[in-house]
Design goal:
With 526 residues, the protein is mainly α. The chain has 18 helices and 3 strands. Helix 4 (95-116) packs antiparallel against helix 5 (119-130) and helix 16 (459-477) runs antiparallel to helix 17.
Length: 526
């Protein structure tokens, strides 16, 4: 893919994302799900009304800014309500979230490109992210989770850009990385897991570097004779690969074979992750420690000036107390409570909005319970649910990456009866490490959380699942084997078809009872 088509692809992904998020943004002239908190809180900053918030205030600032700007735009005010505490159009408290959410697929694509410099990988990562349901739903309403994700992802992207540069330019991007991570934590505390993922991949890089610093250690490396023998085998394999490449170029067929299909690697393949050990402990502590902490602290200043009930320390104590007393992961606490292990397979999504009407021409319901069973012929449902096949295929791809990493240790162990590590890690191995570590960093901390949690808490982790399946499909599409290329095309088609099929419950489009049931594949989805 050349630069021209890459740019066209990126613009197309953004336009698709933008159109989906703004289409019918005022459809429900009410407060949907946690808009009853966040939209009100954003408006409270404009009316100077003190309030207690169970999360850091950055997302409410953003919503408040959106309300202020939207209120000064002389259109999109056909419907208004006073549910936020002031007479506002739903568009005013939703549009900035929709715009922000539209950039998430672009940032995911940018991370994919920066990891590998592979344009197809980047386009697929952006497209798959744009075709996910829960990100679409969260972007269309005045909620906070998209801000955790986009700031955390920006932190990672800026870190990769820093690793790709030197001296002042590196420091420049590291500062922005620290700001991004600090802003993510300033939205919700679980934004801290993005930062922990950056630290973990840095630590792993240093461990690998230290292992390679002892080439004479019998514990870690092969004997010289076995190294020479392996080197001979590699040269022979590379010779066969170059010969096959020459034949295929004559036939006009791509021969690139992913690392999990071929042991031959291009010596020019690079990734900024290989430069992680150029960052020392002092740089990490300053740029990704002090700066995020400083950003997080100053984020609180406007809120503490508005509500002087609690100081900086006391408000954190109150927030912690609030979360500790929410109760366990039980339907008795909330019908949509879903423990962390239910998220990857999406066994318990949740309805953000559900209303029924007698006909499609009837005005959209605003408040109140749905009509009695059998009376409603039209169903309006906004379901916080991912694209099922994107999530399921993505989990499989993540497990594949784990298996690929484990095999690189286990196979030499079985053959040589000792721990062994390649002298140089391939780009795909680095990508696998990055995705697996960041996925685990954003998921595993929830294992110890005993309060009621929901599927939207998985959003910070699932973006790395999107990257994993995009990587897998990219490797399939670039494979020499026709069967794997067909597999990549099939997976992509299924993901796109699934998104279109479930789109009505992402956008809250009217459905017949049969149409609704057709999309609720499991009772736990309802």
């Amino acid at each position: 893919m050349n630069k021209k088509w890459f740019r066209i692809g990126m613009v197309s992904v953004f336009i698709l994302s933008l159109a989906l998020r703004f289409w019918g943004l005022e459809r429900f002239n009410t407060l949907v799900f946690d808009e009853v908190y966040f939209a009100k809180f954003g408006n409270n900053y404009l009316t100077h009304t003190p309030f207690f918030n169970a999360h850091p205030p950055l997302s409410q600032y953003m919503i408040g800014i959106g309300i202020w700007i939207g209120s000064h735009i002389p259109f999109w005010h056909d419907s208004v309500n006073g549910l936020t505490g002031s007479l506002r159009s739903p568009w005013t408290y939703r549009w900035l979230n929709a715009l922000t959410g539209s950039f998430i697929p672009v940032v995911v694509a940018a991370i994919a490109y920066q990891l590998s410099y592979r344009r197809t990988f980047a386009i697929l990562a952006g497209l798959f992210t744009a075709c996910d349901g829960i990100f679409l739903v969260e972007s269309r309403y005045a909620l906070s989770n998209i801000y955790i994700v986009i700031f955390g992802l920006l932190g990672h992207w800026f870190l990769l850009l820093a690793l790709d540069n030197q001296n002042r330019r590196r420091s420049f991007w590291l500062v922005f990385a620290g700001i991004g991570f600090g802003a993510s934590v300033g939205t919700k505390w679980n934004g801290l897991w993005f930062l922990s993922g950056a630290y973990l991949i840095w630590i792993v890089a240093w461990v690998i570097h230290l292992i390679h610093s002892f080439p004479n250690s019998k514990l870690f490396f092969r004997s010289p004779s076995s190294e020479q023998e392996a080197g001979g085998r590699r040269q022979e394999a590379e010779g066969r690969s170059h010969e096959a490449e020459g034949r295929s170029h004559e036939a006009g067929v791509s021969t690139y074979s992913p690392s999990f299909l071929s042991s031959s690697l291009s010596p020019s393949s690079q990734t900024p992750l290989q430069n992680l050990t150029q960052l020392n402990i002092f740089q990490m502590l300053f740029y990704l420690g002090i700066i995020p902490a400083f950003i997080y602290s100053i984020i609180w200043i406007p809120h503490l000036q508005l509500d002087k009930t609690y100081g900086f320390i006391a408000v954190h104590q109150q927030i912690l107390k609030f979360h500790l007393h929410l109760g366990g992961n039980s339907p008795n606490v909330h019908p949509y409570c879903a423990a962390w292990y239910k998220w990857p397979l999406m066994t318990r999504p949740m309805a953000y909005y559900y209303q029924t009407a007698e006909s499609i021409t009837e005005p959209l319901p605003v408040m109140g319970p749905p009509l009695p069973a059998g009376a409603g012929q039209v169903i309006y449902d906004v379901h916080a649910m991912g694209n099922p096949f994107l999530w399921w295929f993505g989990v499989a791809a993540m497990l594949f990456l784990v298996g690929m990493l484990v095999s690189q240790v286990v196979i030499p162990w079985v053959k040589e009866k000792r721990f062994s590590m390649p002298a140089t890690l391939s780009v795909d191995t680095w990508i696998a490490l990055y995705l697996v570590i960041n996925y685990a960093a954003n998921l595993l901390p929830w294992v110890k959380v005993t309060r009621c949690v929901f599927i939207y808490h998985y959003m910070c982790a699932v973006v790395f699942v999107f990257l994993a399946i995009a990587w897998f499909v990219d490797r399939c599409l670039c494979s020499y084997y026709q069967q794997l290329r067909a597999l990549g095309v099939t997976i992509t088609f299924i993901i796109l078809a699934a998104f279109i099929f479930w789109m009505p419950i992402y956008l809250g489009l009217p459905l017949s009872p049969n149409g609704y049931k057709l999309r609720m594949w499991f009772n736990s989805w309802i």
